[in-house]
Design goal:
Elements: E1 3-9, E2 16-21, H1 24-32, H2 40-43, E3 48-55, H3 58-70, H4 73-83
Antiparallel strand pairs: 1-2, 1-3
Amino acid sequence: MKAWTYITTNSHNRVLYTGVTSDLKGRMVSHKTKKYPNAFTAKYHADKLVWHQEYDSIVDARAREKQIKAGNRAKKIKLIETMNPEWEDLFEKL
């Protein structure tokens, strides 16, 4: 089963959220519609998809998520800007 590790941000690119899912498009719809209003992404409006990577298993995706979360903000920004230098919302390209 495919899985994704992803990073979202808010409209000002100040908040970074790293997550993992087996349905990236569905998860982004949940973030954008604030399906879970008490969730971090809803509270901080982190619904702009700025980075994602596909894996063949959820285990690999979770391992990558942990690796990214263990890094500092500068490493996350570098990762995002390697794929998406303009910090565009990649949701429409899914």
